[in-house]
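The instructor's notes for this session suggest beginning with a concrete chain rather than abstract definitions. Hand out the sequence below and ask the class to guess, before any prediction is shown, which regions might be ordered.
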Amino acid sequence: MHILRTPDERFVNLPDWSYSPTYTDVTQDEHTLRIAHYDTGPRDAATTVLCMHGEPSWSYLYRTMMPIFEAAGHRVIAPDLIGFGRSDKPTAVADYTYERHVNWMSQWLVANDLRGLTLVCQDWGGLIGLRLLAKFPERFDRLVVANTFLPIGDRPPSEAFMAWRKFSQEVPEFPVGRIVEGGCARKPLAPEVVAAYNAPFPDESYKAGARVFPTLVPISLDDPSSAANQAAWEILATFTKPVLTAFSDSDAVTKGGDRGFHNRVPGTNGQPHTTIVNAGHFLQEDAGADLAKVVHDFITRNP
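After discussion, reveal the predicted structure:
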């Protein structure tokens, strides 16, 4: 396994981003990989908000939400998935699998002994984060599901998703910042924000993890992760702690996905599920302050 590490200078003077990384080593076979996360707010807070990003973003996506949580007295932890942000980046597409991502983040979660968590997850932050919750339900007190899903491959994927999957594998240069911008409803993004999303990727050799993610989503029942996701749903079907859905109104990929959680996860019962308006797939970018308020109010109502 050949591993790249983005130079630190790529992250200097990013707009609205003053957080320093904490690093945790995880292993894959005989290899050690480094996961970065950002930790702010009081360490002894009653609630720790775990913010998990997806594809092809990094924790910078939560930059407008983290100060709101911190001001409310919450601890906030935002990890960069392997292949993203300041975490290590294996260069071969074959180095990345769904199950490896779950294993890497499981090692990270246990190594940092995180508990009392309110998980806020979007995109692949949900595909991985929901698996963590199912594996370690005792570590999680609440769940906020935003523009994500946990597929088992039992139904055809949407045309929008298949178009995205095709694009990701065929485009000669994978334009990370522009992809994030394209998934927003409030455009254009400032050039310096687009540049911040590009920062983890000095060139195409750093982007194997970003490119491969769309192909790792289970789209058939014989997918290698289908059975594991079905097992996770069985745990979610018994999860009675508070669960809130906060999907946006303008995301073609995950639209309607909130109903699956309402129908199957008992913790959703009686919660004031919400729609974030004028927001696309990356609702944290479009309406971070609105989403942060929804999450804080949810925590307050469910101490």
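Then share the key points. The chain has a mean pLDDT of 97. The longest strand covers residues 31-40.
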